[in-house]
Amino acid sequence: MPTGDNELVEQAAAGDAEAFRVLLERHYDGIFRLAYRFVGTRADAEDIAQDICIGLVDRLGSFRSEAKFTTWLYRIVLNACRDWGRRQASGQRAMANFADVDDLRRAADADRASQLEWVWTTLGQFPDEIRETAVLVLAQQLSHGEVASVLGVKESTVSWRMHELRKTLKQRADEER
């Protein structure tokens, strides 16, 4: 078994699994330590080191013996840490954006709840037949034909009641603005 990094890289790039194993055993701790110094957490450093080791098989063919293997390898670690940092920053921006969207959603939900409360309060001021029709159409989402069957009226009566309801709700909303 060759002992120099360059020989191990050559053989590992040619498909020698044992040479690759020796290379990883020799350099894994250095990969991990360097990643840890950049990212600051053991779990993230382990993830980065494992990702590098997995990808190293494919990258060995691009190693040129012009520099030391460790110099080349540490450049890969540094780039992986930079990528990790960009993903973290992107994730933090996404979380901030999510928080903004969630705040807007909550405000919209509160506004919608306020509007619904107004509709139901106002609906209570209508005659029973219009209120019943509205509940079946709006809350139960039944078709006008289905509501007509439930109430024992013509479908056109349901449509007229809903028209009157919308017209009156719009007038009252305009008056309150």
From TrEMBL:
GO terms for biological process: DNA-templated transcription initiation. Belongs to the sigma-70 factor family. ECF subfamily. The keyword DNA-binding applies. Residues 23-89 form the RNA polymerase sigma-70 region domain. NCBIfam families: sigma70-ECF. This is RNA polymerase sigma-70 region 2 domain-containing protein. GO terms for molecular function: DNA binding; sigma factor activity. The lineage of its organism: Bacteria, Pseudomonadati, Pseudomonadota, Alphaproteobacteria, Hyphomicrobiales. Keywords: DNA-binding, Sigma factor, Transcription, Transcription regulation. Pfam families: Sigma70_r2 (PF04542).
